[in-house]
Specification:
Strand order of the largest sheet: 1-2
Helix content: 25-40%
Radius of gyration: 19 Å
Distance between the termini: 42 Å
Number of domains: 2
Low-confidence stretches: 153-157
């Protein structure tokens, strides 16, 4: 059965019926010239961050995570109630942190030779950023661990 489903997905992809599109949007939104690649992009409205969240955690990556956590929110709240915030650990793996949110800081420096024009958000560059976000959004106090599997290779031109 798995082979059949795989075949259906490949057939749909080749017929142009896939969420993957050939695009260079991920580069062009930052005024970077690059050849198009097949990429997937979430194109639905995402859940807004809660009001109490510190803006240092605002990133597209964390908003996708926040939206996804909706699916297990009852279980998270149950664990908090049963064990307490100090005994809930956050152990995660992620391929990205939200570092792209700082691209405009570097672009501003290249154009104006001034680091002061845009605010740099160090939190978005930390490999622990997704786990730090979960801890902040649920006010957890237990162990935090996040492994990043990110590997960026960008050939421009």
């Amino acid at each position: 059965m798995t082979g059949f489903i795989f075949l259906l997905k490949i057939t749909a992809l080749l017929a142009g019926k896939s969420p993957l599109k050939e695009t260079n949007h991920v580069f062009s939104q930052h005024q970077i010239q690059a050849k198009p690649y097949y990429l997937g992009e979430v194109a639905i409205p995402l859940r807004a961050f809660p009001d109490h969240l510190d803006p240092i955690h605002y990133s597209r990556n964390n908003q996708l995570l926040w939206h996804s956590l909706q699916q297990i929110e009852p279980q998270i709240q149950q664990a908090i109630t049963q064990f307490g915030k100090q005994r809930i650990a956050v152990v995660m793996g992620s391929s990205t942190t939200g570092a792209d949110e700082n691209i405009s800081v570097f672009q501003s420096f290249v154009q104006n030779q001034n680091w002061q024009e845009k605010d740099f958000n160090q939190q978005q560059c930390l490999f622990s950023a997704p786990a730090d976000f979960v801890v902040a959004v649920y006010d957890l106090q237990g162990f935090i661990y996040n492994i990043s599997t990110a590997y960026y290779l960008l050939k421009i031109g």
